[in-house]
Specification:
Layout lengths: L1 H22 L3 H19 L5 E6 L2 E6 L16 H15 L5 E5 L8 E5 L4
Helix pairs in contact: 1-2, 1-3, 2-3
The chain binds zinc ion.
Amino acid sequence: MRRPIALCVLLSFVVSLAGVALKLMPQKQRQKFILNNLAKALMDTNPDSLIVVEEKGDQFLYTDYGCAICHTRHADKPACHLYVGSLEEALKWASGQDITVEETQCKARGDPCCQFTIGAAA
Ligand SMILES: [Zn+2]
């Protein structure tokens, strides 16, 4: 229960710091910026975590190898809804657009990581 709260606090912290810089960036850059900063903030608070943000075509892949949201949980389907919601909120704030986030791998389901595909092509 500890980590989800921290995620929200961190998010608002990143978002308040980023406000001015973001306004000057093109759309794609804004998305990348917020994803990288969120990943960095999470890794700073938890030395055991490893989060990788990659560009893949016009999408981003956000991969958390130490996801604490589904830690110890088991599920048939990707279970990190809080993570999806936080990413969507951060992206919406940063870009002013609704950007789709889909969890495509989840440790709760036995995958090696929790991976989120961001900006799914419509
Ligand atoms: Zn997870």
